[in-house]
Amino acid sequence: MTVALTSPIWASNAKAGLSVYATTAFPVVIGKTMAIPAGTYVLGHIDAVTKPRWMDAHAEFQMHFSKIIFANGYTLELADAPAQAATTTVHVQVTSRNDVLLDNCAQFDMIVQTPLVLDAHKVAEAVRRSRPLPIGAARSASLCLPIPATPGTSDTVIPGTPGTSGTPDIVISGANGTPPTVIPGIPPTQGTPPTIIPGSPGMPEIPCPAPGAVVSGLSGPQIHRLNFQVASDLTVAGKKLSPGSYEVSWLGTETSVQVDLLHGGKAIVRTPARIALLSEKSAADKTLTRANADGSTSLVSLEFAGENFALIFE
């Protein structure tokens, strides 16, 4: 059962025992009969949590669920023994700077491990009253605000003083054999150079961390890493890629993903992308580009030899 959070899980208070509130994001149908409609409430609890660290940008949750509450008030209690009736393991690719580990409407799978017995009449009434969550991206609960760039200050110049040329001696001729009188002139003086007080350098913008990439399942997050070649200068999300060999990496199997581009093993840019299935496997690596009005060239899509999908850069 795919569920979506109705309230976020914050990094500051995520711990074992914390309640988890969600609704079913997709209906469960048995045959042609609706069993659990979308919009049904689910109450869960965190059993264990691993928070991200500076060297490990990854969080992990283990949860179990105790109640399914239908729109008409019909409540299904999920027994804990001999085995928890419904559980999940959720992996989130985040950094230690993320203040929200699981954001509003984050979706993951709840695995039913024991049979659930439902009252068909009460479920039918609940179906008429259920209101699924609206489709579309939810507003993030994160309180992070990007720190804008600062332009810095220019150098301060204090002008120096000009020099003087001085004046020559004044000679007054003597009379009746007396020697001349010499009045000394004023010698020239050197000026002083200007004083320069260096300005301060500007600071680049510090953006907020990207929302976490969520993958559920006992096998852990599925990480994709593929190589591609750049033959001429390309631009991706405002970052210029010079000719050379690159890697593209993303987490999970969703159709909309956050993609990291790496060069020499170092991440250089993160950008959203869409995974589009191809009708057949690509025979060779393909790089599709677009010429822009300013003379630059943008990366549009990547195909990989032997793979049946393409990465589309929005």
Can you describe what's shown?
The protein has 2 domains: 2-129, Beta Barrel (Lipocalin), CATH 2.40.128; 222-313, no CATH class. Helix content is 3%, strand content 43%. The chain contains 1 helix and 26 strands. The longest helix has 10 residues, at 120-129. The radius of gyration is 35 Å and the shape is elongated. The two termini are 30 Å apart. The model has no long low-confidence stretch (mean pLDDT 87).
Key phrases:
single chain, 314 residues, mainly beta, Lipocalin, 2 domains, 1 helix, 3% helix, elongated
Mean pLDDT: 87
Strands, count: 26
Rg, Å, rounded = 35 Å
- From the N-terminal CA to the C-terminal CA, the straight-line distance is 30 Å
Q: Write the CATH fold name of the largest domain.
A: Lipocalin
Helix amount: under 10%
The domain tally reads 2
Order of helices and strands: EEEEEEEEEEEEHEEEEEEEEEEEEEE
Task: Assess the beta-strand content as a share of residues.
Answer: 35-45%
Class of the largest domain in CATH? Mainly Beta
Q: Judging by the overall fold, what is the CATH architecture of the largest domain?
A: Beta Barrel
Structural class: mainly beta
Largest sheet: 9 strands, antiparallel
Segments where pLDDT lies below 50 for 5+ residues? none
Total helical elements: 1
Shape: elongated
Brief account:
This protein has 314 residues and is mainly beta. Helix content is 3%, strand content 43%. The protein folds into two domains: 2-129, Lipocalin; 222-313, no CATH class.
